[in-house]
Amino acid sequence: MSTTDYDKKINSKPYRFFDWVYKLLIINIFTFIFILLIFTGLPAIVAMNATIKYDMNETNIFKSYFSNFKYYFWKAFGINIILLVVIGVVGFAFYFYSYAQAQDDAHNIIFQLGLAVMIILGIVVTMLCVHIPLIMITFESLTVGEIIKTSFYISFRYFVTTLILFGMFVLKIIGTIATPIWLLFGISLPTLLGIKLTAGVYYKFEQIDLEKIMHMAEEDENE
Fold first, then answer.
1. Which of 22, 53, 137, 197 is most open to solvent, judged by the fewest CB atoms within 10 Å of its CB?
2. Residues 31, 47: contact at Cβ < 8 Å?
3. How many CA atoms lie within 13 A of 131 on its CB side?
4. Are 56 and 23 in contact (CB under 8 A)?
5. What is the CB-side half-sphere exposure of residue 204 using CA atoms within 13 A?
6. The model's pTM
7. Residues 83-119: pLDDT tens digits?
8. What is the rounded CA–CA span in Å between residue 49 and residue 43?
9. What pLDDT is attached to residue 103?
10. Start-to-end Cα distance in the chain
11. Are 115 and 98 in contact (CB under 8 A)?
């Protein structure tokens, strides 16, 4: 096969399609394995987002994925620990308020309010989580605290974008439970869709001065 024929082949739509399918499969498998290890879950998800957003045209997808995994590991690991603690506390409180036996009407009201608060907190934490990976790879200089703060701000300020990412998150969970074969692409494919559907908003973020967006977040907190 001549060089010209080979170039035509690798640039053809069928080849590029199956190349992307292969890469999404590889990314999905590694991400799924690291998520099962719990403490490496967020670093793997951040690496997946970075690889899908920036490196899908790279020849060696293994190298790209693990390079991103290493690059973002410690910052993502720190946030992962914080989120695990928060999720653990909210989960325990939810369980407590769900199964606690009320002695009287007053205690019953308290338990119901506690349950409602935990549900709201759970939703807020999920809204926060869906933005963290993209925030990390968009604003690489942010500290752990600034990433959480910025994600919280963006999750409410750009609510439609949050709903799209939340929808992709739900798709990952439901798809994995409902169809085992979904495990082959159940993490990477919704992530790709989420990145594509929110590309316009995150492109705007990339053009914004980092200090400006942090100042906007502080102004919203002070209002």
1. 22
2. yes
3. 27
4. yes
5. 7
6. 0.85
7. 999 999 998 988 888 787 767 777 778 888 888 899 9
8. 10
9. 75
10. 67
11. yes
